[in-house]
Amino acid sequence: MFHNIDTNIDIQTGKLSGNIIESEKHISGLKNVFKDETARSQMIQDTLVYRVQMHKAEKEGKEGGLFFGTSFVYPGLVGNEYFMTRGHFHSKIDTAEYYWCIEGEGVLLLMNEERECYVEKMSPGSLHYIKGRIAHRIVNTGNKVLAVGACWPSDAGHDYNSIEKDGFPVRLVCINGEPALMKEESQEGKKENEEQNRS
């Protein structure tokens, strides 16, 4: 007996249709995510930075299930920093995830619990296995929409709070029209500079 399929994917673009959940992140909802908060606050606040489509065939938190989705990160800059996702660890920190690039060009920024970072270039067809205990963030370094497919355990959860609190120690910035990694100043370094400025 055939079962009706309630969700479809356009394999060329990654767009989902049917039984899906969608969310969007605009400039207004990304306070303190980018380095230059002044530049962000002065931008058109309803500028779309990224959106996510998800198909959840299982309940959130169900052990043994899978979720499927596509993230679409738009091209743009805040100051000289490329548009990107907030980034997250998984709440169930040992859980892994697959990403694959469908369209566009970008960088997958990865960070372990010791705050050591490495990056992987994303281009159409690239496949990325993200191990457990690794935070991940998608950065669009191109001039068109970056579409990235994902599959992850339905009990993985998302820990955004630790990234909101401590961030990533590196950022992707545009220098002379090309992407470059920039080290973020540590919290200790910021405190030292503040003390020096006061003295």
From TrEMBL:
The keyword RNA-binding does not apply. Signal peptide: none annotated. One of its GO terms (cellular component) is cytoplasm. GO terms for molecular function: glucose-6-phosphate isomerase activity. Belongs to the archaeal-type GPI family. Residues 25-168 form the Glucose-6-phosphate isomerase prokaryote domain. Coiled coil: none annotated. This is glucose-6-phosphate isomerase. It comes from Anaerocolumna xylanovorans DSM 12503. Its EC number is 5.3.1.9. Keywords: Gluconeogenesis, Glycolysis, Isomerase. It catalyses: alpha-D-glucose 6-phosphate = beta-D-fructose 6-phosphate.
